[in-house]
Design brief:
The complex is a heterodimer of chains A (408) and B (434).
Chain A lengths: L40 E3 L5 E3 L23 H4 L7 E4 H15 L3 E5 L15 H5 L4 E3 L4 H13 L3 E5 L10 H8 L2 H4 L9 E6 L14 H4 L6 E4 L3 H13 L4 E6 L6 E4 L12 E4 L4 E5 L3 H14 L4 E5 L2 E3 L3 H11 L2 E8 L4 H13 L8 E5 L8 H7 L3 H11 L2
Chain B lengths: L41 H8 L5 H4 L6 H11 L10 H26 L14 H8 L7 E3 L5 H7 L3 H9 L32 H17 L10 E6 L6 H13 L3 E7 L2 E2 L2 E2 H4 L8 H5 L3 E5 L3 H16 L5 E6 L17 H8 L3 H11 L5 H24 L42
Classes of the chains: A alpha/beta (408), B alpha/beta (434).
Subcellular location (chain A): Plastid, Chloroplast
Enzyme class (chain A): oxidoreductase
Main location (chain A): plastid
Chain lengths: 408, 434
Amino acid sequence: MVAIIQGIGAATALSSSSSFDSKGFQLSTVKYFPERKATSFVVRSDGRLIPGSNLKARNVSGRLVTNAVAAKADTSATSTASKPGHELLLFEALREGLEEEMDRDPRVCVIGEDVGHYGGSYKVTKDLAPKYGDLRVLDTPIAENSFTGMAVGAAMTGLRPIVEGMNMGFLLLAYNQISNNCGMLHYTSGGQFTIPVVIRGPGGVGRQLGAEHSQRLESYFQSIPGIQMVACSTPYNAKGLMKAAIRSENPVILFEHVLLYNLKERIPDEEYVLSLEEAEMVRPGEHITILTYSRMRYHVMQAAKTLVNKGYDPEVIDIRSLKPFDLYTIGNSIKKTHRVLIVEECMRTGGIGASLTAAINENFHDYLDAPVMCLSSQDVPTPYAGTLEEWTVVQPAQIVTAVEQLCQ
Amino acid sequence: MASAISAMKILQPPPLPTTATSSPENLLFDPVKCNSSFFGSTHKLRFSSLKPSSSSHRRSTVVAVADVIKERKLNSSSSMVNLITKEECLELYEDMVLGRAFEDMCAQMYYRGKMFGFVHLYNGQEAVSTGFINLLKKEDYVCSTYRDHVHALSKGVPARAVMSELFGKTTGCCRGQGGSMHMFSKEHNLLGGFAFIGEGIPVATGAAFASKYRREVLKEADCDHVTVAFFGDGTCNNGQFFECLNMAALWKLPIIFVVENNLWAIGMSHLRATSDPEIWKKGPAFGMPGVHVDGMDVLKVREVAKEAIGRARRGEGPTLVECETYRFRGHSLADPDELRDPAEKAHYATRDPIMALKKYIIENNLVSEAELKAIEKEIDEVIEDAVEFADASPVPPRSQLLQNVFADPKGFGIGPDGKYRCEDPKFTEGTARV
C-alpha cells in the first residue's frame, strides 16, 4: 500500500499476521525474539512480489518488513499471508486502538483539552465522548500542569488515564508533574503506587506553525527516570503502540507527529499489540544502518529511493522506542553494516540522536568503520518562513549526501 | 454548623439566610441539579449566562466558624455543650500527643545524626491533622506536603514504619527510598509526601476524580471516598492551587482543601507574599464554600471537618478550609528561625492545641488527669519502640538501587545481547550499562 504525503515519500507496510502477538500478548513473556519466524515479502517497485529474496538470515525480528520504495503495491499481493484488513488514516488508527482499549477496560479514560465534545484537535478522540460519556472522555480547562497531576492521582488510585496534550509543546507546562510525579512516584513510594498513565500528543515541525507549535519534546523528557518514550510513524505502529502504552503499567509518553496524521495504510482486522521496547526494521540492507523515527522515517525512505538508484543498499530502522533504545536490533544492524547514520528531527544539542550516538559508541565501538554521523534539526526556534523552516529540518538530499560520505 | 459555611452557586447565587441555626440538615444552598450530564450541555450554559446576576446576590456571607461556636456556647442555656464524647476525646488526645512526641524525637534523632536532609516538623499544628484525619475512613485519601510525618501517623501508618523511613532503612514505609518528604502508604491511602509545594494538590484532585469515576462510571454505588489535601499558606499563591480549585468545583469532586496557614513560608511572611491574605475568601471565587477556623483548637477544626467531609461524601462538592495555625519550630531542622517575632511565638505557645484540649477535658470532667498521663506514657513507649526498631533495621542493599524504578521492569529495555536488561539478576544493582 502507498501512503503519500505531499511528495515527501512513502513507505509500504507489510503485515504478516503470524508474526504478532494478538490476544496472546503477555507482559510477562520476556524473550520473544529469536523464535519468531515470519513469512515476509518484499514488494519491488514494479509491484512484483518476491518471497523473501532479499532477506537472508538477517531478518531477525521478522516482524514487519517494509519496502524501501514508494511502490504502488497491489493490496492483494501484500496480504496473501494474512486476512485483508482495513484501510485507515493514522489518526483513525490511534482512535481505533484507543477505542478498543476503552471497550476492554472500563478504567481507561481520556483527559485533555477539547477531547470530548470537540472530538480532539486532530480528531483522535472523535465520537468517543458520546459513546463513553463526559467523565470517561474528560474536557478539561486549560491547566496542563494540574490535569496531568490529576491523571497521576487518578492512576495511583486505580484508573488508567490517557492525557492528551493538544500540542506536545503544551506539555512543557506539565513538566513538574511529568518529571516529579509521573516519573518518580513509583520509586519514592517504594513501589507501592503504580502510575499507568499514557501521555500523548502531536509534536514535531509542521507546516509553518511557528516556533512554539513546532517543538520536539522527546529530548526534554529523555532524562526523566521512570518513564518510557515511544514514537509512532505509521498507522500500523500507531495503533499497536497506543494499545501497548495503555496496557503498560509504566508511564509512557507516546509522541505523534502533526504531519503524519493523514497517512493511510491497510492494517490487520485482528487485534495486535506491539512491543514498547522494540525497534522496527523498515528496510533491510547491507551497506549502512540508518536509524530514524517519526516523520524523518519518510525523508529517509525518500532518500533511500535515490540511494538505491545510485547503487547503495541502506538498512533503515525506525527505532520507535526513544527510551529505552532497542540496542539488540540496532546492534545487529551495526555488526552487519559497520556504518551508522542517525536522522532525527530533534535539535542538534542534547537530542535523541546525541544519546543514541553515545550509546552506540559505548556498546558497538569495535564494529564501526566510520564515526557515527547524526543529522538533526538546526538549533533554532523553528522559523515561520517556509524557506527557513525547510532548512531547519533534515531533507532527503542531505541524507543522500551523508550516506555517500560515510560509504566512501 | 451549616450556617457557618456558605457558598456561591456557580450559575445562580441563592439568597443566604443570616441567622445561625444548629440543625445539620439546614443546608444553606441548593446544589445545582443537573439532570443531564453533570457538566451541563452547552444549551444550559448559554441559557443561564443570559440571566443577569444581580450584584446583591453575589455577596456571600461567610461566617468564621470560631464565632459560631462561641455563639452556640453563649446561647445554650444548659451548663456545657459537650462537643465530644469521652472515647472521642481520648482518641484525639492520643493522636495529638503521638504527633508531638514523634516530632520531638525526630529533632533529637536528627541532631544525633540518625536522619539527614530536610526534615520539616509539625509541632504546634497537630489540631489540624487530628481534627480532620480522625474523621476519615481507612479508604479515604490524604495528600500532604513535605511536612507529612504527622499526617502519616494520624492516617494510621505505624510509627515504626515512619521512623524507619526517616532513618533510611529498608523497613520504612517507602523502603527508605522516599525519606522525610515522601511518605506514602497504599494500605492507609496516604498519597504522599511531596517536596515541591502545590504538586500534591492535583494528585489529590485526581484521587477525588477517581472516586467520582468509580461511583458514576464503574457503578460502585457505595464508593463515597473523600480526599483531604493539606498544604500551606505559601502554596495558596501557586497556580496549581487555583487550577485545582477550579476543576474540583467544576466537577464537584469529593475533596477538601485544607490550608494550614501558619503565616510563614520559610522566611516569607504570608502578609508579604499575598495580596489578599484571607485565603478562605478564595473558595467562593471558584464556587465552593470557604471557611476560616481556629487551627489551634482541635474541637473547632473537627466541627468544620465534619461538615466539609459530609458535603464531599454526599456529592455536594469541595470545600476550602483555612486553618489558622502555627509551627513552634522552624521551617525545617536546618532553619535558624531568626525572622519570627518572639512575641508572636509566645502568643501561639499559649494556644498550644494539646494544652487546650487537656484543659477542656479536665474542665468538663471527661477524663481524669491520671488517664491522660497514662496515654502520654504509652506514647513515649511507642516512640521508643519505633526508634529501637528503626535502629535495628537493615539499610537497603545494593540490589535495591534500581528496583521500583519501573512497575514493569521491561522499561529498562533490551540490551545488545537481545535479552531484556531486567532478566539479568544483578541488574538492579546498577551494574548494567544503558
